[in-house]
Amino acid sequence: MWTPIRTADGSWTLRDETLGQACHSLSGAWEQARLRYAEPCRVRELGRERPVVRLLDIGTGLGLNLAAALAALDGTLARLEAVTFERDAQVLAHSRALADWPAEVEPWLQRVHAALGAQARAGDSIRLVLGDAREHLPTLDEAPFDAVFLDPFSPQVAPELWSEAFLAHVASRMAAQAVLSTYSASFAVRLSLARAGLTLGRGPRVGAKAEGTLASWARALPPLEGRIERRLARRLGGS
Question: What CATH architecture is 2-238?
Answer without folding.
Answer: 3-Layer(aba) Sandwich (3.40)
